[in-house]
Amino acid sequence: MSTRDKKNTKCPVINICVLALIGLFSPNSFAIECDSVAFYGNPLIGNPVDISKETISKSESIRLEKLFRKMRGTWTGKGVKVECKGEKENQKVFKNHADMKSSIEFSDEGRLRLENRIKSKKDNIERNEMLEYFLSESNFRAYFNNNESNVLHLKSDRNSTLFVIREDNPSVSGGRWVRDAHTTFSISGSTLLINFKLYINGLLRSEIKWKLKKR
């Protein structure tokens, strides 16, 4: 896979400069607005923005390859997870801080692998987590909940990327629910930010932020 690409000095297409994003990150003050609507709306009603995307362009593949190569190595830092539970009338927000260690590999075959060690400060329990993605010249796939899924929406530049993975499932009540996982990778020098947002039927239910430094 070619790694040649034109130099880009513009702010990321994700609409926030990486340096600004790093400056705003503060685990202690991190909060979310429960049930805020995804940028494409509720996928079950009205006319939501179509985020379907089964393939990526060669230039997108090259940008992702360069970014993933920068991410290789061992990273340590802090993380925080905020969850919304219950309905609006009785909704509660739970926050959990953690110490993080992430070992990231990116192979010549296009496999991005994150092996994460997460130690919760709340209960002092340590757990391991593995995230795996596969990049080719025409698509970008994720290994998610024991299933391989194509990324539906992707924006990227040389220092950051945002992508969406969707699970569309029937519910026990006979309807359906759509689970969208938004992931952002942003890198600047020796700092890596990873952000995960979970939307159910277009409404934000949880968010995780990691701020890591290269060892």
Sum up the overall morphology in one term.
Answer: globular
Mean pLDDT: 83
**Beta-strand fraction estimate:** over 45%
Largest sheet: 11 strands, antiparallel
What is the strand tally? 11
**What is the terminal-to-terminal distance?**
28 Å
Widest β-sheet, arrangement of strands: 6-5-4-3-2-1-11-10-9-8-7
Radius of gyration: 17 Å
Short note summarizing the structure:
The protein is mainly beta and 215 residues long. It contains two helices and eleven strands.
Please give a structural write-up:
This protein is mainly β and 215 residues long. The chain is built from 2 helices and 11 strands; from the N terminus they run H-H-E-E-E-E-E-E-E-E-E-E-E. Strands 6-5-4-3-2-1-11-10-9-8-7 form an 11-stranded antiparallel sheet, sandwiched between helices.
Keywords:
215 residues, mainly beta, eleven-stranded antiparallel β-sheet, 2 helices, 10% helix, globular
Topology:
Layout: H1 18-24, H2 58-71, E1 73-85, E2 92-106, E3 111-120, E4 126-135, E5 140-144, E6 147-150, E7 153-156, E8 160-170, E9 176-188, E10 191-200, E11 203-214
Antiparallel strand pairs: 1-2, 1-11, 2-3, 3-4, 4-5, 5-6, 7-8, 8-9, 9-10, 10-11
